[in-house]
Amino acid sequence: MTAAETERGWILGVGIAVLDIVNLVDAYPREDDEVRALSQRTVRGGNVSNTLSVLRQFGHRCDWIGTLADDAGAALIADDLDRRGIGRGFAVTLPGTRTPTSYITLSRATGSRTIVHYRDLPELTAGDFAAVSLEGCEWVHFEGRDPAETARMIEQVRRVRPGLPISVEIEKPRPQIERLLDGAAVLIFSRAFACASGHGDPLGFLREYAARCAADLCILPWGAQGAYALARGAEPVFSPAHALPAPVDTLAAGDVFNAAAIDALLRGLGVADMLLHANRIAGHKCGREGLDGLAESARDAGLL
Ligand code: FRU
User: Fold this and answer.
1) I need a labelling partner for 298 at 20 to 30 A (CA). Which of 16, 70, 93, 158 fits?
2) Residue 196 neighbours by CB distance under 10 Å
3) Segments in the chain below pLDDT 50
4) Is the pTM of this model over 0.90?
5) Is the CATH number of domain 4-300 3.40.1190.20?
6) Whose CA is nearest to atom 4 of ligand 1?
């Protein structure tokens, strides 16, 4: 049965879509080396857009909103979204612009991915977002980017559809990122963000940030160790990472974790089960290349 035949709740994802040019190499090169890649793939990337690829595989109706350039890269992104059944009717095309690119070196030795990202494409504005009808929407997930604009979009959602669950990924320290701490039901932080804010201790970070925000749930994936979460008024929960023989491809593992966390919360799972599900799917992803067929292979592996 296809995802469309069993379509579940409608999720709107707000973020960037980029072109990922992924070079697989034997081992990560030294500076000034010249190496030959073992293979190359060019795929649609971007955190929220990757997250939607997985949510779609879980059977959700998904729409993406962000900006698109009007070049060949944008055509590839649009075709890929269409092929996967991810709606792009709300996306805004900006004439005379170029698609953002990520040149990614994926190491076969470790599965690590090193990303050099370039963009000069303007990002979605709250004015663009205001045109979206949220009627029937069950979840809105934001990439925590331009904080001033994103905070206005979150306010819009709360005004138009109070009670509609909102999640925000807080991945990188950015000026005024704190503006995104209010308004979301679920905040998903990154380990890099926690470390950049001076916390090598995940529980200390979660306690501090949970006290500073109004979210019902703060989630903090912690790499190969596992993930933590803290729900309002409850004790923190830790769930160890899914055991893997050797990582093959860690590109977008965090985006997959976010998808599985949202999927679990939409299914009404508790915090511990949500973390277990997110760790399993993200861990399983690290054992295989790319995002294609992820849910099916997780199902075959008895993880779904
Ligand atoms: C992976 C990813 C890539 C993209 C980059 C953007 O998480 O979304 O697909 O190129 O990060 O920062």
Assistant:
1) 16
2) 11
3) 1, 3-4
4) yes
5) yes
6) 46
